[in-house]
Amino acid sequence: MEPNLHQQILQSYEDWFALNALYERWAKQYGLTSNALLTLYLIRSLPSCTQRMICEALVLPKQTVNSILDVFRRKGYLRLEVLPADRRSKRICFTAEGERYAFAILNGLERLEACTLEHLGPADRATKAYIDHRFVQCLGAALEELAPPKGGRPSEQEEEGTTDE
Fold it and tell me: Is 93 helix (H, G, I), strand (E, B) or coil?
């Protein structure tokens, strides 16, 4: 691997960690974790949002999501409705109080993000959106191509941190 590429990967990790820390900081202002914040976002954004949808979107175990939802239910922010199409699944809905609570937090976050993106300017925003999307596509393709078989082990080179690429 070329040295510059390695440095760019390291910088990507640093940026990823910093971005996560900033969202965690925003969430903590409201007594939330970033996972709880993102759960509110998904409930607002997904029609007929279910616990399974949240688990899949956030790549979290069912127990973690259930704990987050229980806190919101106990505070009176959520109610569950049985889905007619699949009586085993329940749609997660905001109560009137929950809607006010979640929308105030999420709308504030959206204003913060919009202000941040405005500072980038139109050209940088378009470039960022393109690069982010392209990176996700390429990483997904590389994962399909290069990932060891399920349950497999890394090669000796990968364990040692040395690959020919």
Answer: strand
